[in-house]
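W.,

You were right to be curious about this one. When I first looked at the sequence I had no strong expectations either way, so I just let the prediction run and decided to look at it fresh. Below is the sequence, 269 residues in total, followed by the output.
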Amino acid sequence: MEPRAIPVLDKGFVRLVDAMGDDRAIVQAARVSYGEGTKTVREDAALIDYLMRHRHTSPFEMVVFKFHVKAPIFVVRQWFRHRTASVNEISGRYSILKEEFYEPEAFRKQAKRNKQASEGALLDEEALALLRRVEQEAYGAYRALLEKGVAREMARMVLPLNLYTEFYWKQDLHNLFHFLKLRLAPEAQWEIRQYAQAIAEIVKERVPLAWAAFEEHLLGGALLSRTELRALRGLLTPEVYEKALASLGLEGSRLREALEKLFGPGEVP
């Protein structure tokens, strides 16, 4: 039975084809063990959290996902900027491409402060009608060129970027987390964020401990510059910061580590 496909956009999807490893594989690699590699779930969670926050990335590379994705070409061109995966896409040289185009419910306006972003809905029926007209004309030209005997590899030149394509994507968890951090970000294009959310749903189910650490330290965390750290040190004392951290549940060595991250080992009693 084929794995469940998660619908994305109007005609796209993401489905998990295969996966190797889970949270236990990360722990096993970190402990260099050929046995079960686990103690208790709590200890495993603590170890995975330690690996994530200290950027010990190689154990996460022991987990691999392979996805089957259907997405518009303009989304895929963004996706393939992540060059840390094995990819195989349907070929327009060998196959006649289907008449399937992404049609948004509404266009978005060009952002005023960001040249590469959009903001707000642009409700314009004429704009959507123009998109559909271009799709019909382009696909009609594509079919006409094929009927005239033009090679498939050349006839495809007339097709627009909202045509759907399909590909297989195989990537280890470390690099997949990097993809998700970038493509789940609010500033990422809305369409690719929908695919990132579908992938996140699959990853979270497969490696819940690693996902929790990823959310805590990478997805929800931030990297501070030297200047930003100096500013915070000027506003806080170790005692005030320790009290705030403790109120949020940090204790023991984890609490001390957080204090040393901001104030340095020599400044923490």
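Here's what jumped out at me. Residues 125-147 form the longest helix (23 residues). And, maybe more interesting for your project: The chain has a mean pLDDT of 93.

Coffee later to discuss?

I.
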